[in-house]
Structures
1.
Amino acid sequence: MNRDTRTALMDLAEHTVRSRGFDGFSYADLAEAIGIRKASIHYHFPTKAKLSEALIERYQTSLQQGLAEIEAAHTSAGARLKALIALYRGALHDGQTVCLCVAFSTCRESLSDTVIARVGAVRAMVLQWIAETFELGHRDGSVSAIGDPTDEAPATLAMLEGAHLAARTEEDLGVFDAATRLLSARCQ
């Protein structure tokens, strides 16, 4: 299997996890969709646990890059928070998917300890980024009504993740927009 097939498998598996959950597919499903034998998948990902590890590693790298791009593009905390909301909104794909951490969190019992720890690390990374953004908001005044940034961060992440679940349930981006409207309104 060449690198392009491996990437295609990961892309398909990630989309499937984000739309149907980790338990919502098998290697046979992936093999049929890609047009390869199941044994070819096992060559690169001997188990679904190994596939999930590869998915969360790639997701963490992608999310780190996305947060760095937000910082590079926006100097104010308000603009950064609006960009974060847009990043999460984009991950919904018209209400058809949720972010990978949310998807993995809903099927925790099926995940290895390694993946559970990695999901925690990704969430910790985002929490720190959000807290630092609220700290910047204290300094630059571009976010109104800021409490303690370490309290704002988990509330904000929970709101974004909950908005994901609600929008996915309704298959409606408007649900996400309504859930995030108050945070957006705080940002100048």
2.
Amino acid sequence: MRRVVSPTVQNRPFTLLVAAVAVAIEGLAAVAIGGWVAYETLLGGAGDVMSSLVLAAFALAVGAGLVWVAWGILQLMRWSRGPAVVTQIFAGLLAITLIQAGQLAWGVPLIVAAVVILVTLLAPPSTHALMGDV
């Protein structure tokens, strides 16, 4: 049995594929960080248990949301662009703060990812595929 694919999804621009993969990686990283914080908290490694659990829950929720947004980008869902762009603006601000604090190992990859995602999401082929002839 052959799977029928919408011609628009079948002809997805490469820029959207790159954006979706990068957003999914960000989401999976957030899930991993949230899981690690929860694990460390449950083992007794947290100074403030409640704050650590809230941070873990927040990271897990953000990660799951980003994976959902990445799926939306892959499916050419118009709604997916807004949350992805807003997330990258905040990620860029966080990356700048991390870099200024000397946390280059975290800040540099985050700002690179944010720039790549913004450039690919706002590229003309991506705009046309997601927004049509608007």
